Amino acid sequence: MPANAKECVAPAATMRSQHMQMLVSWREDVVRRNDRRYIAVDGKVYDKSLTRTCLGCHNKEQFCDRCHAYAGVSGPDCWNCHHAPQTKIARSLP
Amino acid sequence: MKITRKDFLRLSGLTLVAGGAMRLAQASKAAVQAAMRATGARASQKQWAMAIDLRKCRQRPGCDECMRACNATHNIPAIADERHAVKWIWNEPFASVFPLQQNEYTRLNYTGSPLPVLCNHCGDPPCVRVCPTGATWKSSEDGIVMMDWHRCIGCKYCMVACPYGARSFNFEDPRPYLPRINPEFPTRSAGVVEKCNLCEERLAEGKLPACLEACPEHALAFGDLFDSNSAVSRALAESYSIRRKPELGTAPNMFYIV
Fold it and tell me: Could you give the CA distance from residue B171 to residue B180 in angstroms, rounded to a whole number?
């Protein structure tokens, strides 16, 4: 759990095993159904957003990348387009 | 289980009948859709549309505020090579926007003055009909021709189908060409097609499209075309407007007041 948060959108065990399904269903909901609000089991409402909600607390390098590298699951290509707030994007223009 | 010759024949007969019934159902669905198009029935509950008042655009020769606002909002790369350029809203000469409407006076009036063009969010979008993956579709809620960049395989059929050239392909990674990045909106990656989304992400927050907000002349009127009280309906009721290539039957939802 990141230092600046007490709880995630779902219990840690669920997130560990189901985060990929959750991200896919969030994506379909936002892009295809214009449904942007996620209501957690405790009734809290979250924005269905990788950049704003997930990465609002988690750090890409220390959280996503570390585990994905350890588990040998490389290749989620989220970051080709989505922003990780802590990461600088290489640009050639000023 | 052993299947007898009689059972086999019965089964194959049933399969044939079922197949025929399915074919028939599909044909009647297509016929209903064609009839809906012919009678001008609504493809969505709402239809966001825009009226662009070129009389106001002409007041400011060389103005590109709407385009700059869009580029900054949606992380559109500034690629100098025209063949690789990505465009959501851009300037086009009158002669190529309204080829059959040009005359000496349009040449006189529109040379050097802005004429913004963008995706028409057609009532019957040809790009949607050709997409093999369902990566682009017309929203049944608000009529926006949407794109799912996750699903786009970059086949470019939609670019061929669009009669307005409103779609661009990312031939290379756009990120090196971004003057600055708006973290609120994703960039795209090499290999996908993109186009104007009518600021769908801003509308969801109750904001108006970025191009409209940036316009110093308030030349753009936006709203629901099916609501006679919306800004766009009122603007269109008051003035004479034209659309791009209406003869193609795509039912464009961008109107130009000339």
Answer: 20
